[in-house]
Amino acid sequence: MVFMVVLMFGSIMYTVESTASGNNTTNFTSIMSGCWWSVITVTTVGYGDMSPDTAIGKVIGTLALLTGLIVLALPVTVIVAKFSDEYEKTRLRIERENMYRRESIIKEVGVR
Q1: In the predicted model, is pLDDT for residue 25 greater than 90?
Q2: H-type helices in 1-112, by residue range?
């Protein structure tokens, strides 16, 4: 899914910036350079080596950033919540096992 988002925004950005830039000083010289920008933008790293020059390019950049947050950040919260639930279940199971061991030791010592 991330690959598709990167390819889509990279292609769109290359098309918009290369056609709208009349002075040919754009950083987006190919679709691959657009994809490089898209990877950096979608993952919110933001090196700053490339940026859109046109207004529509900046809007597309904002959409790419927001899409990156949705595609990457929201699933992480679900994964962390599930991990937290499983961790709590395991912690409670281990506490119960330790309690049973202590009770069995106390019974053995009390019997002898």
Answers
A1: no
A2: 2-20, 31-42, 55-68, 74-111
